Amino acid sequence: MKKFWVLGLAVFLLVASASLSFGMEMKAKGYWWIEAQMKQGWDFLDKGAISEEKPFNLEQKMRTQFQFIANENLRGILDTQIGAANWGNGLFGIGAGRSASLTAAGANSAGNGNIMLRKAYIEYRWPNTMTNISLGFQTVTLPAAFGGGSAILDDQVAAAVVSAPITDNVSILAGYARPYDSNSAASTTAGNLTGSGTAADIVFAAVPLTFKGYSITPFAAYANVGSTSVNGNGAGTTAGFASANSSAGEGIRAYWGGIAATVTALENFKIMSDFNYGKATYNNPVAQNGKGGRSGFLFDLAVDYTGLSMMTPQVFFTYSSGENGNSSKGGGSERMPVVNAPQNWTIGSFFFGERLELGGSINNTAGYTSNTLGYWALGMSLKDIKLIDKLSHDFNLLYAKGTNNKDYLYESGGTVRNANYAGFLTTKDSLWEVDFNTRYKIYDELTLLVYTGYIHADFDKDVWGASSVTNAADIQNYGTSNAYKLGVGLNYFF
Q1: What's the pTM value of the predicted model, to 2 decimals?
Q2: What percentage of the chain reaches a pLDDT higher than 70?
């Protein structure tokens, strides 16, 4: 009898596991990088730099996503990342990773070697409708036609998002997100804070309008950011909300509005344009007699010529409002407020960021738009150049000049908020950038990447040398240098 019991149990387990296997489908996909890079002049300080740059570096990052699919209407997503970590920094150990709800540096800021959660959410369709709902830690990005993503909010955050078609041409998207919350026992920075000011909440909505030959998406968002929501200090000192009149412990109310438009009605042409506006008000009536705050806009326009089979030429222009230098006199900041560190918006592939390279951008760690707002740029690209099978290239050339008044660097009694030399452009600063990137498909899933970049910069050392930034003396002594990069990478998509 015992043998029959064991056999029966084995059969039961086999049937149960088979039922689970047939009832649930699991898919895995990933994007793994291994790259080597040589760089020089990234701090734009000629000769004696503040710190020695590493001329040669190797690093890798591994993103792996699992989809648990119950049926066509229901699935769960689990997305993880290990790295980026430099070779020679020890084992790629599994650690605690970042405390996602507290950081102001964006969702991709885990420490070296740590495994971090990029996404974990449930996505489902409401029964007998076309309404799609996603709930959990996921990517939230506001609409954008050009640049690769939103310059306002484009990050992994805890959110609930609902989207549904209204007609064949009109749909609606609405959601709620909580990017910060210091009321967490998991915090290693702020402790387990309590009170009404520990969280930041955002509500947003968009109405995509799609017709033959063009699409237009107006959107709006509102945020209420608590006074202790980011590392226990509030968002007043973070890159996306800070100005010369902001301080720690401030709550913030902010709103944004904009429109993203794409036109394909003209034969062989694709036109993309965005307009974003945002305003943030600090909830500290004492600071600057209650007149502080931050408001500004970003505009971009790009035109692709799609009539060639071997490449896609593009011209583009972008403009963002900059500081006018009156913050210490009671005025507000003129840069657009930004949530977290938008991870994808960029032009070119060097100074303003690069979405596919690990260490290929000067402002990667600064969060792209968070610190660089306040400039105009004009450029051209030759995208997806294909002259040989499996081999493709991208070429970018751009000129950028600041729209930030130089007087901003002298404000607030020596305290300048997020005006970093080599990332912040005044009206006295400009740069040329040229970069050329090559991709070779070893297999459909395996790509060899070779990328190069050069920046000829003209930062005014007299302006910066007399400013309130911490490295003003070094800037005055050493002046501007040019920046270079050369990298080789192996990218595995599966």
Answers
A1: 0.87
A2: 79
